[in-house]
Amino acid sequence: MKNVTDSFVSLGHWPSAGSFGFNTDILATNPINLSVVIGVLIFFGKGVLSDLLDNRKQRILNTIRNSEELRGGAIEQLEKARARLRKVEMEADQFRVNGYSEIERKKWDLINSTSQTLEQSENFKNETIQFEQQRAINQVRQRVFQQALQGALGTLNSCLNNELHLRTISANIGMLGAMKEITD
């Protein structure tokens, strides 16, 4: 410590005799050199340092501004995507509801058409049964009539003789002739 104070005290006692040389006392020369360098740097470097700091500040502000714009765009896109998602979800729900109601409607249509087909088949079956019954009844009537007619002819043939037979034919011919005159 004493050397440092001695070096400052001895500044006033430098010899002015003409030799130029190196001062090897590090503690005496460093504070002076440092103060000169720092003073020069502050005087000349202030503008450069200020410009560098201003440029850095502008880049940081531009980066923040761009980040805010990107953030705003991302938020806008997120809102649009959410709106599209809500719309798609509503459409999906609508399709689901419509699909279920469509399936239910088709089910009832199928049940109704099957019921109608069964009813038509039942009606056709009943009509067929009635037709077959009517046909069977007509066949039975024809056979009964034929048998009755054969029985009546057999009875008439066995009971009638030729003369009675000729009178019956003549009477019938007369009745047919009278009917013909009435119709003309």
Description:
By secondary structure, the protein is an all-alpha fold. It has a domain at 33-141. Helix content is 89%, strand content 0%. The chain contains three helices and no strands. It has helices at residues 2-9, 26-159, 162-183. It is rod-shaped and about 200 Å long. The termini are far apart.
Features:
184 residues; mainly alpha; 89% helix
Radius of gyration: 68 Å
Head-to-tail CA distance between termini? 175 Å
Mean of all residue-level pLDDT scores: 82
Q: What percentage of the residues does DSSP assign to strands (E)?
A: under 5%
Number of DSSP strands? Answer: 0
Helix content: over 70%
Please give the largest β-sheet: none
| Structural shape | rod-shaped
Structural class: mainly alpha
Topology order in helix (H) and strand (E) letters = HHH
Ranges with pLDDT <50 over ≥5 residues? 7-16
Organism: Ligustrum japonicum
Main location: membrane
Subcellular location: Membrane; Plastid, Chloroplast thylakoid membrane
Keywords: ATP synthesis, CF(0), Chloroplast, Coiled coil, Hydrogen ion transport, Ion transport, Membrane, Plastid, Thylakoid, Transmembrane, Transmembrane helix, Transport
Brief characterization of the structure:
By secondary structure, the chain is mostly helical. 89% of the residues lie in helices and 0% in strands.
What order do the helices and strands come in, and which of them pair?
Blueprint: H1 2-9, H2 26-159, H3 162-183
